[in-house]
């Protein structure tokens, strides 16, 4: 795995000098030299928006951010192996299922922050402060506008109906997004009905699960199937793409928010927790609080097409154009708690 992407002290100071005058930059030197003004992040997010978030935080606070990127499970294993010697302050991850896994592995510590508790709705954070959702995404149905009418669609449950045989596209069950979706079905219906649902889904697959969400959307546009499941930001990214082929594919398909007449569409979060042995705990909390400011929430919304979790922050216009929708209000922790059982069910159902 990569070493921390260290920025030079000189670069930080030069930028501060430009912002606030050389005197202030020199005053901050002892703090930086003491190693107090930095935050070390282990991140499994894979979005360019994060670079903007880090730069905005560094500019505003003069606190240096060092990042190690990796896969969620690798980072959790690394935190476990490093134990008290870990330099990590913050774990940034996509999907509540993963954050819950980190909590369960004992690599996070609880945080009491009035700022975060006020800014982040209760269903998007862990009740004791082990992690906080900082942006949200819905898992929705994408349909081919030529072969499917919105009135043909209703719920996730309905996608298991034989009428969709050979028409459904969805990525593998090894993907945590699908594990969390199945975890939400488990919470709504219990194990027996969830297994019947997963079997129905697998029986309807247009092809063996492969690729990511964007590949499912492209396959619907290409006529390989009629309906797919995808996170919202991937579709928005395609709609706003500078690549004409990708944009044309996105324009062939429509987005449908499922379960609007009952519990609402499945919404998951991307978020962060403080590492158990964070050497820079206070600055790390400051960083999390920064991510819940209107400035950072706008970056999540504009650069990655995610839904801000903080009320009153507008979504990207491409996202806002879909209109309001009803969201499943299940606490995101439940996806984590149900993860192992969800995965077993999907396995047994043949959703590989
Ligand atoms: Fe993603």
From TrEMBL:
Tagged with keyword Metal-binding: yes
SUPFAM superfamilies, A to Z: Periplasmic binding protein-like II
Species per Swiss-Prot/TrEMBL record: Niveispirillum cyanobacteriorum
Keywords: Iron, Metal-binding, Signal
Signal peptide extent: 1-33
Similarity-based family: Belongs to the bacterial solute-binding protein 1 family.
Annotated Pfam families: SBP_bac_8
Cellular component GO terms, alphabetical: outer membrane-bounded periplasmic space
Molecular function per GO: metal ion binding
Name of the protein this chain belongs to: Fe(3+) ABC transporter substrate-binding protein
UniProt keyword NADP, yes or no: no
Residues annotated for Fe cation binding in this entry: 46, 233-234
